[in-house]
Structure formats: C-alpha cells, structure tokens
Amino acid sequence: MIALLSGCAAVGHLPALEPGDYQVVGSNDPALTTTIGRRTVYVEQAQDTLRLLLPSPPAGSPQRLSYGLHHGQHVILLQRNFDLDVFTIPFKARPPQGPVPVQLNTNFNAALYFGRRLDFYHVNGRQLLDGHHAPQIRTVGLGYGLFTGLGSTAISPDVLRQPGTGGAYEGFVVHAGAATIYDARIFNLGLAVGFDQLLGPDGRHWLYQRKQWFGVLFGLDLN
Length: 223
What we know:
Layout: E1 13-14, E2 20-27, H1 30-36, E3 40-46, E4 49-53, E5 64-68, E6 74-88, E7 92-94, E8 103-105, E9 109-127, E10 133-155, E11 169-183, E12 187-198, E13 212-220
Antiparallel strand pairs: 1-10, 2-3, 2-6, 3-4, 4-5, 6-9, 7-8, 7-13, 9-10, 10-11, 11-12, 12-13
C-alpha cells in the first residue's frame, strides 16, 4: 500500500482542520500526552491554536484545553469514518488457468466501494520570516472495504473450456471483492482482489468464472 505523503503542496495538505471528534494517537509534547493520552476529543482550530474539548468525567463538566501550534511540536490525530466511493478498475491481472498464461484485462470496469476509512492528520506549526507561527496540516487517508460493479472482458475460444456462442466478442461481467485504499485528497488509489461472473450462455465455460484476479482501483475526489 502506498503510505507516503506527496511533496506537492496540493496533495496531502489541508489549509485548516475540520471541527470534529479525533483520537490523539501521538505527539512529541509530553504535557499534551500526559493530559490527554490517546483519548478521543472534540477539536476546533482557531488559526494557530487547537481548542480541545475532553469528554465529561463521571462527575463534573468537560475540560477545555488550548494547544498552540508552535515550531518543533506536533500532534497526530486520527478520525474514523465510513466511505462510499465510485472507482474505475484500469486493469485486472488474472493468474494462469489451464493452457492460458497470465492475462492482463484492460477493458472498462467500474466499481462501487464501501468500507472503513482512517484519516491521519499531522498538525504542527511553522515559523514565518516575520517570527509568527502558521499552522501546517499534512494528511493521509487509508481505508479497507468491499466493492461490487460492472465491466467487460474479451471472450474468445481460447478462454472457453469448450466451443461457445461463436467468435470473439466483449462479454459483460459482474465483479466483487475487497480492496485497500490510499486517499491523496485529489485522487484515490487502491489495490483490489476480486472475482468475475460472466453473464450469458458462455459463463459456465469461461476459464475465469469466479476465479481470483488482482487489480487497481482509481478514482478522483470531486468533493
């Protein structure tokens, strides 16, 4: 899985943190880790300061903290969500079947993906030339889930166990499987494992019917 932040400013960087619930998963500030640990807190960003609202104790009111984003100090936040996306599958690699070697299918394929999403935010401050501090937020999103969709594949006598309907043609398939996703905020990329169901009378003769394939999911973030 790709898990590196891009060096391009548009990829993997945010201008500001969205208000919401985040889990604190790391920091190089001992005071923050001692106070919060790895708890989930409500976070709002006010320019170069994070306002943290800790859950209410059994008896008492919620605790409010302010964390300044200074140069050399950072905090890593995690947000969990469910994800629903539409992807294309640029190619599928099919393992050998009988006399047919490894096949690379580049026909059109689309998939509807639903899964669990983990967004990590590395929040710190950088010092400007005038001495002031500005927030800097780097982010990477990872996910895992299931997909299903529609596509096509090349059908010919070479990939049928016995003569079928005739010559070569484009067959209609329904596919499903599991995938891991990397989200770079501009585009989404995933590695998938799935299987195809060829529709039509040649389905029962197709060498790859419900056989495992490996592929790539790709989509653009239009939000």
